[in-house]
Amino acid sequence: MIYMSREKALKILNEPNGPEKLAAKAEQAFEPAWALYIKENNAAAGAFLCRLAKQKKFREAMADKLCSADENARFCAMLLSDDAKLRKNTARLMGALEREADAPRLIDALGREQTRFVRPSIILSIGAIGGEEAKAFLDKYSVPAAKDESEKRHFAEETDALLSARRKLTKIAHHAFRALDTEYEFELRAPDRLVGSLLYDMEEEELEPYAHKGNSVFIKTKDIDKLMRLRSMQSILMPIARDMNASDAKQLLQCGRFMSEFFENCCDGEPPYGYRIELRGEVKDRAAQSRAIAAVIDSEKLVNAPSDYEAELIFEINEQGRADAFLQPTVFCDDRFTYRTEALPASIHPATAAAVLRYAMEHMKVNARVLDPCCGSGTLLIEREKLAPAASLTGVDIAHRAIDIARKNAENAGSKAKFICNDMLRFEAKRPYDEIVANLPFGNRVGTHANNERLYAGLLDRLPQWLNEDGVAILYTMEFTLLKKLIRERPKLKLVTETRTEAGGLMPGIFIIKLK
User: Which range marks the domain in which residue 249 is found?
Assistant: First the structure.
């Protein structure tokens, strides 16, 4: 390996964004950067080394360097340097190297540190190294209050670092859901404008809602098993508070109490319980508001753990800044759609597929022969089979990857659906089908509007050949205007009904078509 000269490395480091530029030549720059850092106390070289420390091979190389008593002494001394940036980068490197002996050094350095922007790095490194001494220190540590307006941002960053470090050292066990100890209120959400499908599902399960509004259905129950069988349900929420101030400590503590009581009463295992915060609606600074909420709620029982949580604490914030707060536990056994281990980027959500099919159920029949001419990951066919018995289910897609995924999902679901790799415009039906179901390409995520004109026209032209005389086509698409126009132009087709929905910020429509 030919290493870069120390002079060249120093020249690059002194340029704007020098550490980032030098990272492109990491292999050649490591040795000269280490020398600049250890022997000349160059803070920019320290910043560069912090970038390299994200890679295992460079961490190991640094650890080898520090086996030298002289270099280790120089390294530790930099934690007390007059240069604040050098102190910060040294603390960061100690955290990356995770040497147990550095924990008391960092604890001592934090007690001495007067520069606020340095302290978050020291705290995070104490958490990264861990151990009983580190945990005991962080549990007792409190962030000094901001002395003036200029320190408020640093206070927030240090508070966030402390919460992150504590989370790092907190072991969060996963808790098994036992049962609901009493009736809880639930708000069940249906796909947009398809609440009727959800209500029909609930009627079949003998669940009695006390109200419904918009896309939401409200019910009080303790029968979670029945709720988790509702295939048209897109989400299940447990209301905590309505029209609250999401910055009010008293109301936030109420949210925390609701969450901890739910876990204590309904799940096996001891605290702490991991949760994450989700803010929906217009929020100026989501990260800052999430930090502020966690600072109030976090306790020995509850830990804000975005990467290891068992419940989401959701705040839906309106234009006036008021919020509805919900708990969305992930401990409920929701195995409705576990068959779908893979999906394509434009795949329909399984709950939407179930709701669309439920919407059109009066036009279906038992033991139907069903075709999906652009089946994608197979979701519509699988959900169709779960809705009512089918004599056969056939999926066609031009993409080999889609067919592979559909076959795997169908196998997981125990479905008898069969899949063919073919262009639907070339597909010939050996016998007519009773039902055609399709999530057509939208044109903005898959395909283009120009391609859709040809594709949609070709599909509609084939319906008379594909469908029985009393058959039905159920089509779901974003190209609402295009499909409606093309149907009008075809005298053999009759548009029975249509409706618009919302999905992922788009406004697709459902078309039910029969032959005249």
Answer: 184-329
Whether 132 and 192 share a structural domain:
no
SS3 of 209, please? coil
Task: Say how far apart CA 500 and CA 490 lie, in whole Å.
Answer: 22
Residue 119 and residue 163 in one domain: yes
The answer to whether residue 334 sits within a structural domain is: no
Q: Same domain, yes or no, for 133 and 25?
A: yes
**Final residue belonging to a domain, choices 140, 169, 198:** 169
Q: Are residues 124 and 199 in the same domain?
A: no
Name the token pair of 137.
């220190």
Tens digit of each residue's pLDDT, the chain (516 residues): 678 888 898 898 888 888 888 888 888 999 999 999 999 999 999 999 999 999 999 999 999 999 999 999 999 999 999 999 999 999 999 999 999 999 999 999 999 999 999 999 999 999 999 999 999 999 899 999 998 998 888 998 998 899 889 888 887 888 999 999 899 999 999 999 999 999 999 999 999 999 999 999 999 999 999 999 999 999 999 999 999 999 999 999 999 999 999 999 999 999 999 999 999 998 888 988 998 899 899 988 999 988 889 999 999 999 899 999 999 999 999 999 999 999 998 899 999 999 999 999 999 999 999 999 999 999 999 999 999 999 999 999 999 999 999 999 999 999 999 999 999 999 999 999 999 999 998 654 455 667 889 999 999 999 999 999 999 999 999 888 899 999 999 999 999 999 888 766 667 899 999 999
Same domain, 154 and 247: no
Rg (CA), the chain: 30
DSSP E strands in 101-234: the ranges are 184-189, 211-213, 216-221
207/157 same-domain check: no
Asked if residue 342 belongs to a domain, the reply is: no
Give me the helix-helix angle, 69-77 and 26-40, nearest 10°.
Answer: 70
Give the number of other CB atoms < 10 A from CB of residue 512. 18
Domain membership of residue 420 (yes or no) is yes
* Sequence-ordered alpha helix ranges (H) in 130-204: 132-140, 152-169, 195-204
Nearest alpha carbon to residue 157 among 204, 124, 194, 203: 124
20: left (phi over 0), alpha (psi -120 to 50) or beta: alpha
From CA 413, how far away is CA 226, in angstroms rounded? 20
Instruction: Measure the CA–CA gap between 391 and 21, rounded to whole angstroms.
Output: 63
Q: Looking at residue 62, which CATH number applies to its domain?
A: 1.25.10.10
Instruction: Say yes or no: 16 and 163 in one domain.
Output: yes
Is 19 in the same domain as 160? yes
Residue 141 within a domain: yes
Q: What is the pTM of this model?
A: 0.77
Residue 206 neighbours by CB distance under 10 Å: 8
Q: What CATH number is attached to the domain comprising 499? A: 3.40.50.150
Give residue 505's region: left, alpha or beta (phi > 0; psi -120 to 50). Answer: left
How many domains in the chain?
3
Please name the residue that has the structure tokens 């669940």: 207
